[in-house]
């Protein structure tokens, strides 16, 4: 038996558009893989030189010039180890999502991705031309196939590789997280190794990029479908994989990180998403409006876990309708987490607005207008702090509220990033309980008490919305699974409730379009995933 082939999976957190910075990170990783880990080949994620997804940066001709220069520099500066790097490639009259083998100062071969995803958050057909053949290269005497991300979800590239004599597949990925994604990936990989009769080394990107979070979880799967090496989730790592060489190639058992359960994975995704959004956009910290409710409490806990308490400021802005227990709970949350905390009552601002509008509102009954003014007073305060101190405002709206429009434009929706934008209310409760198992930072009565916006006397959410367990199931069916009103009713829900919820979802697209971005954790999030027209008559006859 010959010496094992050591493949190093370079699970890196890269920055979209930072070609020079990404090059430097890749070069440093390759040097470590060579000198510290004894690697023969290092594999980087998909489009590693540009970061993923570069979106319309790909329409700029200058980008391809800069990428070409960076690729040549990487090949020149790091030798003594093979490198497989992802990059956008201008060639043959088109633009391709590509991977190159760099060896001893030269680009030896280039592979063009054959299957371009054009669904959900992906729109690669907007930018790239489809590749049309396999790529099999010799690495230390072993025929190795190179594929990119979506290629592994289809049978054809694996069958091509096998027909071309490959005995090992290296797959570069930028595969974003959503609930259940790890199981989906491994199920697909098992189909591919069965079809090809060869191991797969699967290398995934890690890090937050706007709404998307890439969870890493790179792995090596043997031809029998067993995972032999698993990189950690939601963190950078250089992980070696030893491929034993004989009649059959076999990844040896190596580094192993346990998969995470649902709450742990989602919580880690939210932490990583907000950390990278704040850091990659250069904000010194964040400011959060605490209400004494569960959404702001969970947002505060995640922000502290992501950024550290010294970079988080919390502000309680009580009104005439704020319960004493809300004030006390907000203070308890801030003290438990050790953040800078201030109380700024909005009563003087609210009174001033009502006074200024008295003549305009003469003869008109009170309604949600007065409630929204309170939310907008708070929005003005938070944005003023943001402007003065340079901190980003984290909003605290959850997916259930945004879906049905239970939020105030230019009020509680005013800010730079919404951590819980894709987290339904029922999951908010589960995540709060999960966080408290680590340390009790959210008072139990915040979890137990009926949710309330506290914008009117004795107000609770149930006055305006169905119970959250009912609402979230209807929303999951309508928003994420695209089920019809009739199908949702047939699943056991009250017909009037379903029609009412669906009308609320359809009529509030204009609000969601103006909401800040937030971490995507579901199969279909508002924003990149679900793109509905604002002006539409589709839902008027439900």
TrEMBL record:
GO BP terms: NAD+ biosynthetic process
A single cellular component GO annotation: cytoplasm
Alphabetical UniProt keywords: ATP-binding, Ligase, NAD, Nucleotide-binding
SUPFAM superfamilies according to UniProt: Adenine nucleotide alpha hydrolases-like, Carbon-nitrogen hydrolase
Binding site for L-glutamine: 119, 175, 181
Pathway terms, separated by semicolons: Cofactor biosynthesis; NAD(+) biosynthesis; NAD(+) from deamido-NAD(+) (L-Gln route): step 1/1
Binding annotation for deamido-NAD(+): 372, 401, 511
The keyword Lipid biosynthesis belongs to this UniProt entry's keyword annotation: no
Domain CN hydrolase per the UniProt entry, residue ranges: 5-245
UniProt-annotated catalytic positions: 46 (proton acceptor), 46 (proton acceptor), 113 (for glutaminase activity), 149 (nucleophile)
Reactions that this protein is recorded to catalyse: deamido-NAD(+) + L-glutamine + ATP + H2O = L-glutamate + AMP + diphosphate + NAD(+) + H(+)
EC number: 6.3.5.1
Molecular-function GO term, any one: nitrilase activity
Annotated ATP binding sites: 289-296, 396
Similarity comment: family membership: In the C-terminal section; belongs to the NAD synthetase family. Belongs to the NAD synthetase family.
Matching PANTHER family: GLUTAMINE-DEPENDENT NAD(+) SYNTHETASE, NH 3 /GLUTAMINE-DEPENDENT NAD + SYNTHETASE
Function of the molecule: Catalyzes the ATP-dependent amidation of deamido-NAD to form NAD. Uses L-glutamine as a nitrogen source.
Protein name: Glutamine-dependent NAD(+) synthetase
């Amino acid at each position: 038996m010959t010496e094992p082939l050591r493949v190093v999976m370079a699970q890196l957190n890269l920055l979209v558009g930072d070609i020079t910075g990404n090059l430097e990170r890749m070069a440093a990783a390759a040097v470590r893989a060579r000198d510290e880990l004894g690697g023969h080949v290092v594999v980087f994620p998909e489009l590693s030189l540009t970061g993923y997804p570069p979106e319309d940066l790909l329409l700029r001709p200058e980008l391809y010039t800069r990428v070409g220069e960076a690729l040549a520099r990487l090949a020149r500066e790091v030798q003594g180890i093979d490198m497989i790097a992802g990059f956008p490639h201008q060639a043959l009259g088109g633009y391709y999502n590509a991977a190159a083998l760099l060896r001893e100062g030269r680009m030896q071969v280039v592979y063009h991705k054959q299957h371009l995803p054009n669904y959900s958050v992906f729109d690669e057909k907007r930018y790239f031309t489809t590749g049309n053949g396999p790529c099999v290269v010799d690495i230390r005497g072993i025929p190795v196939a190179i594929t990119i991300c979506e290629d592994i979800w289809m049978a054809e590239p694996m069958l091509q590789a096998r027909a071309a004599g490959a005995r090992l597949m290296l797959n570069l990925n930028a595969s974003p997280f959503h609930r259940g994604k790890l199981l989906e990936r491994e199920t697909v990989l098992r189909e591919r190794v069965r079809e090809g009769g060869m191991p797969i080394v699967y290398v995934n990107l890690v890090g937050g990029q706007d709404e998307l979070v890439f969870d890493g979880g790179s792995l090596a799967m043997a031809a029998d479908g067993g995972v032999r090496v698993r990189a950690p989730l939601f963190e950078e790592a250089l992980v070696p994989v030893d491929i034993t060489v004989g009649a059959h190639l076999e990844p040896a058992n190596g580094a192993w990180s346990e998969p995470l359960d649902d709450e742990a994975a989602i919580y880690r995704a939210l932490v990583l998403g907000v950390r990278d959004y704040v850091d990659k956009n250069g904000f010194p910290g964040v400011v959060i409006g605490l209400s004494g409710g569960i959404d702001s409490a969970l947002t505060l806990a995640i922000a502290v876990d992501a950024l550290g308490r010294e970079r988080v400021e919390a502000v309680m802005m009580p009104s005439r309708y704020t319960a004493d227990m809300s004030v006390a709970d907000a203070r308890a949350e801030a003290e438990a987490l050790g953040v800078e905390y201030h109380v700024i009552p909005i009563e003087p601002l609210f009174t001033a607005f009502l006074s200024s509008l008295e003549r305009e509102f003469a003869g008109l009954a009170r309604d949600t207008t007065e409630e929204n003014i309170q939310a907008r007073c708070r929005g003005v305060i938070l944005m003023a702090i943001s402007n003065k101190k340079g901190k980003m405002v984290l909003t605290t709206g959850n997916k259930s509220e945004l879906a049905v429009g239970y939020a105030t434009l230019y009020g509680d929706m005013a800010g730079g990033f919404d951590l819980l934008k894709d987290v339904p209310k029922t999951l908010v409760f589960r995540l709060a309980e999960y966080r408290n198992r680590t340390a009790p930072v959210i008072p139990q009565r915040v979890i137990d008490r009926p949710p309330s916006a506290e914008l009117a006397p004795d107000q609770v959410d149930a006055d305006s919305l169905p119970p959250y367990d009912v609402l979230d199931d209807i929303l999951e069916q309508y928003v994420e699974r695209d089920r019809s009103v009739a199908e949702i009713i047939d699943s056991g829900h009250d017909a009037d409730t379903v029609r009412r919820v669906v009308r609320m979802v359809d009529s509030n697209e204009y609000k969601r379009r103006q909401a800040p971005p937030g971490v995507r954790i579901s199969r279909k999030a508002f924003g990149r995933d679900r793109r509905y027209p604002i002006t539409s008559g589709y839902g008027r006859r439900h």
